[in-house]
């Protein structure tokens, strides 16, 4: 295709940027609106190929999200199919992967925000596209945007697996990252703002994601926690390593060298006559372990005293004789039930006492009303509800352990009643937990769920769905 070729008498093709799955990405110009654009072009003499590509583009065209290159226009002009995308100052990430200027915190923040974009797009029905360096636009301000979200990609390149791989690519600055011993050392070195525990947690999360044991939601939540965590002070890490010569990283192949102590310039050095003799230094060295052992003995003694005190307190509460005038536990348990609650015929008879000062028309007090309340058996007890601020109502463990079988397609529970949703979740082999919250939907109706319908969930995953309490409910 010629470099200055125009399409639709409106768009002028510039230089090629990047090959796509079924087309090519070009820099271009919109003559009608005098603006720079990115043009995705499919060139084919086969009309069916163009029609198929047009259908895919129209399917995702309504998506408007600032974490994707927004589609401005779509059209065909034989032998071309084109889509005009909004352009941003920057370049494809694959071109700058080995030398990008982002710090580890900026990488974590950018991938976290892109992950939220994947979740929002999934709610719009847009999913299955590739998430890797060759399909991400790196803006000059450090933001990451998906380029092609209409072509479907392999399972390992999309969703949670794709996002985890993109994070590794950015942190290691490698197109083909790996999590072996060498790759883990490289990754830990790149995560300078995280402490050792956070590094280990992130690496474990990435390993589980690669093994399809984590969902997109859990990965995004973990990244969000890391982004909000305070940066590890390098001075504290250096001092802790300096104090322990045998410090070892979680990877047994890694070992930190003790840093060389350098005397600051101008530091005063006492003359040889004023230095402490060697035998006195040896005595001080011998006194240090003694002081340490003494402190340990004091600490153990204090722990024993606390334990003994707790045991005495428990005995006083459970075994001590009652105070004068107070009934013992046996006497209290032998007392009959209160006058207004008596057991009768397997039910509890509850008396409604008349209000103070209430009287009938003749001036006599009203007779208390009684009502039989049948006993509630364990089978009839409703699912325990918690206050709205705690939300979790009930949980069911998955029928199949996480170690058996492959991923399960998440059933669609939205629109069902609570009992129907529970039954359908059990039938799918997944566990479930549900929340009750106020919404515009009728009370008892499921209005949202995670993972989303149709998403592949690993064995052992719980489907979380939300049940409406009704409009205006607390």
Could you provide a short overview of the structure?
The protein is of the alpha+beta class and 474 residues long. It has eleven helices and 18 strands.
**Which CATH class of the domain at 90-232 applies here?**
Mainly Alpha
- Total strand count, please? 18
**Low-confidence stretches at least 5 residues in length (pLDDT < 50)?**
235-279, 336-373, 375-390
Helical content stands at 25-40%
The amount of beta strand, in percent, is 15-25%
CATH architecture field of the domain at 90-232 = Orthogonal Bundle
Strand order of the largest sheet: 1-2-3-4-6-5
Question: Which structural category do the helix and sheet elements fall into?
Answer: alpha+beta
Query: Under CATH, the topology of the domain at 90-232 is which?
Result: Transferase(Phosphotransferase), domain 1
């Amino acid at each position: 295709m010629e470099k200055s070729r125009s399409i639709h008498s409106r768009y002028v093709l510039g230089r090629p940027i990047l090959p796509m799955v079924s087309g090519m990405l070009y820099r271009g110009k919109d003559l009608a609106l005098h603006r720079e654009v990115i043009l995705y072009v499919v060139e084919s003499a086969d009309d069916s190929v163009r029609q198929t590509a047009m259908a895919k583009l129209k399917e995702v065209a309504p998506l408007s999200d600032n974490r994707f290159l927004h589609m401005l226009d779509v059209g065909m002009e034989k032998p071309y199919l084109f889509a005009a995308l909004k352009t941003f100052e920057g370049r494809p990430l694959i071109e700058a992967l080995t030398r990008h200027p982002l710090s580890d915190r900026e990488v974590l923040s950018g991938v976290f925000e892109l992950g939220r974009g994947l979740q929002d797009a999934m709610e719009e029905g847009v999913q299955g596209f590739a998430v890797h360096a060759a399909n991400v636009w790196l803006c000059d301000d450090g933001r990451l945007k998906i380029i092609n979200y209409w072509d479907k990609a392999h399972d390992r390149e999309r969703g949670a697996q794709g996002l985890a791989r993109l994070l590794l690519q950015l942190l290691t600055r490698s197109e083909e990252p790996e999590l072996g011993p060498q790759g883990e050392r490289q990754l830990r070195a790149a995560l300078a703002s995280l402490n050792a525990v956070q590094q280990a947690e992130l690496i474990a999360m990435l390993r589980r994601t690669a093994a399809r044991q984590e969902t997109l939601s859990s990965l995004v939540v973990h990244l969000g926690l890391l982004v909000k965590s305070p940066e590890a002070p390098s001075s504290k890490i250096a001092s802790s390593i300096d104090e322990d010569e045998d410090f070892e990283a979680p990877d047994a192949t890694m070992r930190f060298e003790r840093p060389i102590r350098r005397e600051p310039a101008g530091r005063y050095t006492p003359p040889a006559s004023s230095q402490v003799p060697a035998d006195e230094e040896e005595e001080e060295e011998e006194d240090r372990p003694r002081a340490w052992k003494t402190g340990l003995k004091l600490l153990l003694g204090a722990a024993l005293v606390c334990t003994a005190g707790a045991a005495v307190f428990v005995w006083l509460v459970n075994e001590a004789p009652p105070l004068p005038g107070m009934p013992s536990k046996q006497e209290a348990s032998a007392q009959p039930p209160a006058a207004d609650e008596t057991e009768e015929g397997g039910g509890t008879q509850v008396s409604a006492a008349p209000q103070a000062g209430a009287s009938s028309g003749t001036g006599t007090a009203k007779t208390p009303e009684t009502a039989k309340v049948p006993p509630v058996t364990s089978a009839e007890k409703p699912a325990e509800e918690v206050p709205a601020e705690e939300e979790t109502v009930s949980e069911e463990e998955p029928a199949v352990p996480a170690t058996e079988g492959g991923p399960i397609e998440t059933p669609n529970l939205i629109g069902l009643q609570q009992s129907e949703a529970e039954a359908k979740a059990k039938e799918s082999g997944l566990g479930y937990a549900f929340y009750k919250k106020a919404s515009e939907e009728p009370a008892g109706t499921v209005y949202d769920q995670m993972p989303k319908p149709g998403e592949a969930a690993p064995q052992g995953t719980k489907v979380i769905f939300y049940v409406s309490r009704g409009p205006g409910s607390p």
